[in-house]
Amino acid sequence: MNAIAPEESASRSRFFFVVMACAVIVTVFAGFAPTFYLRGSFTQTRPMSMLLHVHGIVFSAWVSLFLVQTLLIARGARRLHQRFGWIGAGIAAAMISLVAAAVIEELRRVNGFPPPPLALALSAFDIIVFAILVGTALYYRKRPDWHKRFMLSATIVLLGAPMFRAVVHSLGRGDMAKVSIVSTLLVDAFFLPCFAYDLLTRRRIHPAYLVALALIVLDQVAQATVVSWTPWIKFSQALQRMVA
Predict the structure, then answer these.
(1) Which pTM value belongs to this model?
(2) Domain boundaries, the chain
């Protein structure tokens, strides 16, 4: 049955997703400002390749389009939202390809940051979960309550990298274990307002959030586990030597 939940018709529900999209953009900007958006205002230790520029532009296009899509729904422009949705699918596909290329680019750097095991884990696991959530959101595109929550969750997955860098800017590189824990918890904290809003408007948390959060936590646990796993370290180092 495709019955729409009570809150779907409320304009305040639509604007909640606009607010969340704005929070995503602020987080992305804060994380990548020193190395991308405001690069010229900060001292840089190495040049930025064209590939990483393209990666940053496409990544920015996704979060920007996500905001546009939430605004279109808030204004009732559902048909235009659906047309732009296929553009979003194309951007998502490009992002998956670019992440693989960007990881290879990062591995080519001597003494790069993050180190090879962490750089590979951050990118590989996040993009897999992102692809799963976007694909599921497209599958549920005719069920708005599921679709928009999976899309928001997929976008939250992408906050791992900018949040990690934002925390590094604040705490420094001295205690990477602390940086990883803090950045992980801050990403997960994005689900708190989602849960709170669902409890306020639906009296229960939507299953889409629970599925998405379970995948994201599994992703984060996998990242934390493999970075100290000898076979993963050797694999990432071998991959670095291969592409160097």
Answers:
(1) 0.85
(2) 10-243
What are 117's two structure tokens?
């095991």
Question: Tell me: the pLDDT tens digits for 84-97?
Answer: 998 999 999 999 88
Q: Which two tokens stand for residue 16?
A: 């909640």
Tens digits of per-residue pLDDT, 187-200?
999 999 999 999 99
Give the separation between CA 160 and CA 153, rounded to whole angstroms. 12
- Whole-number Å distance between alpha carbons of 171 and 185: 15
Kindly list the distances between the CA atom of residue 159 and the CA atoms of 11, 40, 238, in Å, as whole numbers in the listed order. 26, 23, 28
Closest CA to 63 of 151, 138, 128, 188: 151
CA nearest to 95, candidates 64, 139, 141, 140: 64
Please, are residues 21 and 77 in contact by the beta-carbon 8 Å criterion?
A: no
> What's the CA gap between 159 and 49, in Å, rounded?
22
CA gap 99, 126 in Å, rounded = 10
Q: Which of 222, 197, 214 is nearest to 15 (CA)?
A: 197
Contacts of 29 (CB under 8 A, 6+ apart): 37
Helix (H, G, I), strand (E, B) or coil at 44: coil
